[in-house]
Description:
The chain is α+β, with helices and mostly antiparallel strands. The protein contains 27 helices and eleven strands. Helix 12 packs across helix 14 and helix 23 (511-543) runs antiparallel to helix 26 (599-640). It starts with a strand and ends with a helix.
Amino acid sequence: xxxxxxxxxxxxxxxxxxxxxxxxxxxxxxxxxxxxxxxxxxxxxxxxxxxxxxxxxxxxxxxxxxxxxxxxxxxxxxxxxxxxxxxxxxxxxxxxxxxxxxxxxxxxxxxxxxxxxxxxxxxxxxxxxxxxxxxxxxxxxxxxxxxxxxxxxxxxxxxxxxxxxxxxxxxxxxxxxxxxxxxxxxxxxxxxxxxxxxxxxxxxxxxxxxxxxxxxxxxxxxxxxxxxxxxxxxxxxxxxxxxxxxxxxxxxxxxxxxxxxxxxxxxxxxxxxxxxxxxxxxxxxxxxxxxxxxxxxxxxxxxxxxxxxxxxxxxxxxxxxxxxxxxxxxxxxxxxxxxxxxxxxxxxxxxxxxxxxxxxxxxxxxxxxxxxxxxxxxxxxxxxxxxxxxxxxxxxxxxxxxxxxxxxxxxxxxxxxxxxxxxxxxxxxxxxxxxxxxxxxxxxxxxxxxxxxxxxxxxxxxxxxxxxxxxxxxxxxxxxxxxxxxxxxxxxxxxxxxxxxxxxxxxxxxxxxxxxxxxxxxxxxxxxxxxxxxxxxxxxxxxxxxxxxxxxxxxxxxxxxxxxxxxxxxxxxxxxxxxxxxxxxxxxxxxxxxxxxxxxxxxxxxxxxxxxxxxxxxxxxxxxxxxxxxxxxxxxxxxxxxxxxxxxxxxxxxxxxxxxxxxxxxxxxxxxxxxxxxxxxxxxxxxxxxxxxxxxxxxxxxxxxxxxxxxxxxxxxxxxxxxxxxxxxxxxxxxxxxxxxxxxxxxxxxxxxxxxxxxxxxxxxxxxxx
Length: 770
């Protein structure tokens, strides 16, 4: 049996194959993912946004970075160098001779396969005269020719060649290892062991340990675990958190502590500049001794956030630190909202657990808007527009125009708007109009139902209610005519009441909400009639049964109804009364027409009628089943699809980073100041988005007034509030003696049940005969 032999690559040929493959596996994918598609792509994108976002801080920083950045050049240089190495190695490999070739004596003799013996001998004589060593030929070539001649003419050699691929018989199988021989040389053993030990016992554990240590310090949203615990502590401690307290908790995050985050910096000049800014800001609770609010990093971050909201001018060092703090705030506020939702769910599941109030969670959302726009809470949302200053607001809030919100400004006539903004030049006015037209206008369509239930429109106590909200996003410029029409019915008090969380939800209703309410009413009306039709069909089906009801069974049913075992809603009671009326009329008509039609004919007609009714009911069930399947498939597709979170860039004059336009959608009880459904962070609303909000219906029957609220995380004054009326009915009681649940447990019980059924049938036959 042939043995095996392992040998290292003394010539280095095999190692070149390995190195070429390794470099190719790195260079080819890296080129696809890292090569800049277009060197001017970012500048072209910024150029398209210049007309609207040209004055934004993030735009100017991004434009400067794109012009000064050398990262694309370095990427190209690195990739080109990698390709040069790959091409060199490939060229090197192409020039290497193949060390192993399948032995073919016909190729050695330059003959075609299957040549005759005479042709082989003739060719051997010719080549022998040419390569014989005695005549100055190549000895190695002559040996190959002799071996090939022997393989084709000698019977044993030919058999070995056909069986083992070699005229000499089986040979030792050799395996080449793609490592140079000097690596396993005894002289270099200590050096190789040192390199292996350093790589696998020092570098690899350090890299894995560092990654693991960093990963356990952060949550899924890249927020420090310590910060999340801090937010949970203070939100539990202070359920009702005003804006001043919220800013203190936000700026106490460990992301701003240099001991927890290396990006945070404490400068020597902070001892001079920070106290000066504190004197300019006024009362910011500097003397508060509660940790961590009294720590230097927290105090500095609080000052930086407040100066940003006040739009104060600061020095270059402070401005750099301010940008770092402000960029972190939206993600931290989102984490704070998540913590508030978790505490609310814990309070719902556990009795006596204290949950944060709705005002605390909504203040987090408002603070996010304030940070992105660089505005204080009491400031007018018109200051989000360019070229608007405090002294210009007096032209807007005058008795003639009464413009206090973005919607009011859009709804003005062009002539009135230009006259009101006469303090702006033509270029500035055109810029303001371009920015105003790019602001979002969201419409909400709500649909209330109970999924996976027979009657999806009947909300019973304790059922899971699903509110499907369809959000449609358009620009203000596209719906300007809409605002002109709604100007007369949307008074100024709407803005003030939307800002007041205590205001009733019905008073914030606009023409659009009223129209949606009317549509919902008509839909309810139609659904009621649809349910009534189905109930009537089921009643007719009951009336056409051939088997009469026995007196004992009727007495038992009456007794059960009297004891209250069978419970139903008002619709069931009305249906029963109608059924009794129909049965009385049916009996009278049968007595009057008994002489006309025979019983057999009446039975045939009733059978046909029942068959058609069953077909109709089956058709309705098929339609409902198809609709349910489509909704399930739509939800599955939504789960499988990964939508981009790049929606629309936010217009923000003072935010240092490009911010995408996101929203919060939730249902709240304004009267009790509680959350009904958890806030859903809508991050993919580019044109249209459908969101399902689920919550359990109240345990008590009655009418409830909720509000579907849509809040922006970037814009002030563009929030939407839509009333949601919930009518909760009593839940249907389960039938204890339903025949499909009467399953005998043993064979004896089954036999007893069969005997009792037989006795009942015989009694019914006797009654029929009587």
